[in-house]
Structures are given as structure tokens and as C-alpha cells.
Amino acid sequence: MAIPVTSVQDSFDKLISLAIQREEEAYEFYTKASENAEQSSSKKLLSDLALQEKGHKKKLQQALGAGVCETFSCATIDEFEGHELSKYLIEIPLESGSTSQDILIVAIKREEGAYDFYRSLSELTTSTDHRTVFESLAKEEKKHKERLESIYDEQIQPWM
Questions:
Q1: Can you give the pTM of this predicted structure?
Q2: Rounded Cα gap, residues 160 and 155, in angstroms
């Protein structure tokens, strides 16, 4: 039995709302990490990432307001669940005494999950405009991951 499209739309609405929440959490995460960073270059990068995550939240809110959830190609809840989109938005906790290495590892994993999530959404939307938004978000998350990996390589695991 097919589930009404509104149920699928509601599922996407909840998923996009969760993505907005994760972008808020990423903003807070990078802001706090920036405040605790020891090197000025790390402080600046983390502060820049925080601002970009704030921009991601705004893009998602605009897409949600523009009816993005009505443009996804899933017709049933089973098909929606088959894409396992929520696995990309899992929360990765940090302990209060986390090291710089721990913070970078969590940040890299978060960015990788966000990249995979937005890339998947870009493939599911039937709207060219929304596809462009999700592709743009995916590219930005990939750049974030690469920048964080660069810091990790330079500061945590330098090749000497």
C-alpha cells in the first residue's frame, strides 16, 4: 500500500529541520572550538567555518520556505527510508576535556556526513534550483573537511 505523498513530504520536512539543527550545532561547535584554539590560524579557520555554517542554516531555511520538501522524488516512506539519509546527520558527542585531535576528528566526521547528506539530497530533488543549493552546500562541506584535514596533518600528524 502506497503512503500518501504528504507523509513523505513530512518526513523530508523533519529531515531538513534536523539538518538546520545540525548546522546550528556546527556553528556552536566551531565557535567554541575557535575560542579554545591555541594557534591564531586555527582560531581564524574555525571562526570562518562557524560563519559558513550559519550561512548553510540560512540556505536550508530558505529552501524549506520555498517548498523544497515537495520536490523530492521519493513516492513512499519505504523509498524515503531506503536512502538512509538520517545516518548522515548523526550527532557525534565530544567530552568536555577533548583534545585538539579529538575536536578535529569529530569536525572532519561531521563535515563528511554533511557532504554525503547534501550530495544525496541533490540527487533526490526534481528542482534544478534546489539541486544547485544542495550541490553548493555539499561542495562547501567538502571544502570544510579538506581544510580541517589539512590542519590535522599540519598540527596533529606532521610529516617530518
A1: 0.84
A2: 11
